[in-house]
Structure formats: structure tokens, C-alpha cells
Specification:
- The protein is mainly α and 473 residues long.
- The chain contains 22 helices and 4 strands.
- The chain has a 4-stranded mixed beta sheet with strand order 2-1-4-3.
- A hairpin with a 6-residue loop joins β1 and β2.
- α5 packs across α7.
- The protein is elongated.
- The protein starts with 6 loop residues before the first strand and ends with a helix.
- It holds the Pfam family ELMO_ARM.
- InterPro entries: ARM-like, ARM-type_fold, ELMO_ARM, ELMO_dom, ELMO_domain-containing.
- This is Engulfment and cell motility 1.
- One of its GO terms (cellular component) is plasma membrane.
Length: 473
């Protein structure tokens, strides 16, 4: 006959004693079970004891998680979270460096458990750690384990990030700005700065005053992938939290500092395989970079704006340079007729006023930007596509204007332009780190592939969506 569902059979350890095999009744209060265990080893003051999972985590058993105990689990009787917190609070203030280091190691390990963390925080433990950091007297392993304990405690979300002083922020930033710093200290400092920026708009401004992109770049040029990952995470956090008007400015600085090529050379093309966390940070950077296009994607063309209309004139000029005539040649009607003919060859839907084609959002002005980029940077391919379609039968022409607008819209959907990064996605594309204008270059590749596929399928205008799907997917 199987045991009742509320009874679990476990082994319980106590230092210096043989483990006890015991049946735990999950309906009994945890305090009663701990008292029973203490009495079995003749230990008084049972309220000063607790049970832990006897594995690498050493997590405390509480009323909330006790149902996770399974038959065959190994538990450990140990001091209660409160008693452990009190002891560690005293030990990390020891005058002996060796004793202090061991205490900080124990604190860093214990702080992963939220039950302990709450007790240590209640003793104002976070303030004690920040004071130790601000004092600047600890270095090497002492500082490393201090920062590790701080990170573990803060990760539980119990304490607000807004509570930290400018002095603490400056000290953490100084560890990142130093050219030679202990690897563990640098890693923890980068992690702290990332969390500060992500969790507080006020701290974003303070961190942004202390850290520059130029100071972060050298950390990407080493070989430690963890340091590289945390560095990109800080850049992403600064990018994400920057006011909208500053993101383009920051993107310009990243381009000046050659961030893309540095990542390509030192991370993507590194002999070290890219782990999941690095892949995620590269994906986030990719998304944030593409999101800079959102403003143009959501901007309608103003048919009355001469500067915008000049872009369309430039497309016509590049494609039909030999056919252009000075403005004073011929009648107005003749010139209008000539323009209408050329706009039809360029594949616009509205042959009379193609500006109207770009009033649909998305893709808005982004489609026109792509077309102009293609015309200027891949001029031969652009002219060939336009002229090839000019010489086809109307029903078989692949309209460049319409194709460009629909393709830009499709690429925005595929690359999720304007959407926030997903927390669990690792889908970065190395090709987007091979060029400063990667979106535009991607468009140029796709528009040529679209035209090639159109010819091979002998498609008509009714087949547009079908051809698009074949090309992009």
C-alpha cells in the first residue's frame, strides 16, 4: 500500500552526526517538524534552526516551498536564516582579512536564497556593503565577493535601486573605467551598472554621466566572453533608457567608435563559440539599432514638401539621366507627360504624383529612403532593374516603386522594427553586423532577388505577394 500523499521520506543531515531517515508530514507546521528533528539530536532552541536542501543551492525550506520536497530528498539541519544573517553581518566586519574574506564568500553564496536575503537586508546589510565599497579599502577577492553578494541580494527585487548614493555609483563606475581591473570585479561592476540603468530612470542619468561608450569599447577587445557580454548589456541598457531624442545621437557615437566592426571582429568572428547570453545581447543590440528606423517608418510623406519631392526627382534623374531635359524646354504639358511616363517606368502607383505612394504608414518615408540608398550606392543594379521593367510587357513588369514600398513594409514586420526586444530571444543575425547601413543593404539584396525571382516566375502584378513570399522566406 503506497504511503499517504502528505508523507515524504527524506534523509536529514547534521554536521558530526549520522543522517536520520525520517517521514515528514506535510500537513504539520514546518516549525513542529524542525523541533522534532532538533529533539532527535538533543538540540535546544529549535527556533534558531532551519532545514535546507542539501545540494549546491543550499536553499532554505519554507512554508512556501516545502511542497517541492520529494521522496528521497536529502535535507540539512542548519542555523536559521536570521541567525545566519546576524553571524555574517558580524563576520564581514572582522579586522582579520582572511576571516573577512571567508565571511564574504559565505555571504555571496547564502545571498542567492531569498529567505536569507530578506533577513540580511532587514539588518541593513545592503547599506553595510555599499559603505564597504565606498570606503575603497578593499581590493581583489575582498572587493569581488562584496560586489557578488551585493548583486545576489539586489537580484531578489527587495530593495529599490533608487536608494543608492552618487558616491556609490561613482565608485562602481571607476572600476569599469580603469584600464586594468580584476576580471571578477569588472564583471560584477558592469552587472551593477546595467541593473541601475534598467531599473531607475534617475540612475540612468547618473550612470550616463560617469560612463562613456569610449570607456566601454576596450572591454570588447579582450577575449573574455563574459566581460564582453556584460559590456554589450550595459550599452544596450543605456541605449534602451536614453530619451528618444538622444538615441540617434548615441547611435552616431557608436558608429564613430566603430562598435559594429569591433563586435564583428572580437565577438562574432572570435574562435570562442557564442553562448546564449551573448547571443541574446547581440539580438537586443540588433533590435535597438533597427528601432532607430521607426520614426521614418511612421512618417508620412508630405506631397507639398519640396525637399521630400526632390528625392523622387533624384530617383528619376539617376534612372533616366539621358532623357532628362532642362526645365525651360518644351511646354508644361509636355514635361508633365514626360514625368508621368517616367514615374510609370519607376513603378509608382500614382504616376502623376508619386509622393502619394509614401503616405501609407508603415513603411512611410523609410521606403523612399531605401530606394534612394539603392539608387545611389548600387546605381548600376538600380538602373538595370528600372530599365528591364520598362521594356517588359505591362502585365509582366515588376514595378520598382510598389515593390520597394511593399518590401520595406515586409522587412519591418520580419525584423520587428518598433517592437521592444524579447527577454528570451537569441536570434541575432551576423550579417547585420557586417555593414553600418545593414537594413538598407538588406533591402538592396532583397529588391534584386525579388526582381530576379519575378523574371524567373514570369509573374504578373497579381502574383506580387506570392513572389514576395518566395524571396523573403
Amino acid at each position: 500500500m503506497p504511503p499517504p500523499a502528505d508523507i515524504v521520506k527524506v534523509a536529514i543531515e547534521w554536521p558530526g552526526a549520522f543522517p536520520k531517515l525520517m517521514e515528514i508530514d506535510q500537513k504539520k507546521p514546518l516549525s513542529a517538524i524542525i523541533k522534532e528533528v532538533c529533539e532527535g539530536w538533543s538540540l535546544g532552541n529549535h527556533e534558531n534552526f532551519a532545514l535546507q536542501i542539501a545540494d549546491a543551492t543550499n536553499f532554505y525550506i519554507t512554508e512556501k516551498n516545502r511542497n517541492d520536497i520529494k521522496n528521497g530528498s536529502i535535507l540539512r539541519l542548519t542555523t536559521s536564516p536570521y541567525q545566519t544573517a546576524v553571524q555574517l553581518h558580524e563576520r564581514i566586519q572582522s579586522s582579520s582579512m582572511d576571516a573577512k574574506l571567508e565571511a564574504l564568500k559565505d555571504l555571496a553564496n547564502a545571498s542567492r536564497d531569498i529567505t536569507f536575503a530578506q533577513e540580511f537586508i532587514n539588518l541593513d546589510g545592503i547599506s553595510l556593503l555599499t559603505q564597504m565599497v565606498e570606503s575603497g579599502t578593499d581590493f581583489g577577492d575582498l572587493l569581488s565577493f562584496t560586489l557578488t553578494a551585493f548583486v545576489e541580494l539586489m537580484d531578489h527585487g527587495i530593495v529599490s535601486w533608487d536608494t543608492f548614493s552618487v558616491a556609490f555609483i561613482k565608485k562602481i563606475a571607476s572600476y569599469v573605467n580603469k584600464s586594468a581591473m580584476d576580471t571578477a570585479v569588472l564583471q560584477r561592476s558592469l552587472a551593477i551598472l546595467e541593473s541601475m540603468v534598467l531599473n531607475s530612470q534617475d540612475l540612468y542619468h547618473k550612470v550616463a554621466q560617469e560612463i562613456t561608450i569610449g570607456q566601454l569599447i576596450p572591454h570588447l577587445q579582450g577575449t573574455d566572453q563574459d566581460i564582453q557580454t556584460y559590456t554589450i548589456a550595459v550599452i544596450n541598457a543605456l541605449f534602451l533608457k536614453a530619451p528618444e531624442e538622444k538615441r540617434q545621437e548615441m547611435a552616431h557615437i557608436l558608429a564613430q567608435k566603430q562598435l559594429r566592426s569591433i563586435i564583428l571582429s572580437n565577438v562574432i568572428r572570435s574562435p570562442t563559440p557564442i553562448n546564449d547570453e551573448m547571443a541574446h545581447q547581440l539580438y537586443v543590440l540588433q533590435v535597438l539599432t533597427f528601432n532607430l528606423l521607426e520614426d521614418r517608418m511612421m512618417t508620412k510623406m508630405d506631397p507639398q514638401d519640396q525637399a521630400q519631392r526632390d528625392i523622387i526627382f533624384e530617383l528619376r534623374r539617376i534612372a533616366f539621366d539621358v532623357e532628362c531635359e532642362p526645365n525651360n524646354s518644351g511646354s508644361i504639358e509636355k514635361r508633365k507627360s514626360m514625368y508621368t511616363r517616367d514615374y510609370k517606368k519607376l513603378g509608382f502607383i500614382n504616376h502623376v504624383n508619386p509622393a502619394v505612394d509614401f503616405t501609407q504608414i508603415p513603411p512611410g518615408m523609410l521606403a523612399l529612403d531605401n530606394m534612394l540608398y539603392f539608387a545611389k550606392h548600387h546605381q548600376d543594379a538600380y538602373i538595370r532593374i528600372v530599365l528591364e521593367n520598362s521594356s517588359r510587357e505591362d502585365k509582366h513588369e515588376c514595378p520598382f516603386g510598389r515593390s520597394s514600398i511593399e518590401l520595406t513594409k515586409m522587412l519591418c514586420e520580419i525584423l520587428k522594427v518598433g517592437e521592444l526586444p524579447s527577454e528570451n530571444c537569441h536570434d541575432f543575425h551576423p550579417m547585420f553586423f557586417t555593414h553600418d547601413r545593414s537594413f538598407e543593404e538588406f533591402f538592396c539584396i532583397c529588391i534584386q532577388l525579388l526582381n530576379k525571382t519575378w523574371k524567373e516566375m514570369r509573374a504578373t502584378s497579381e502574383d506580387f505577394n506570392k513572389v514576395s513570399c518566395v524571396c523573403v522566406f
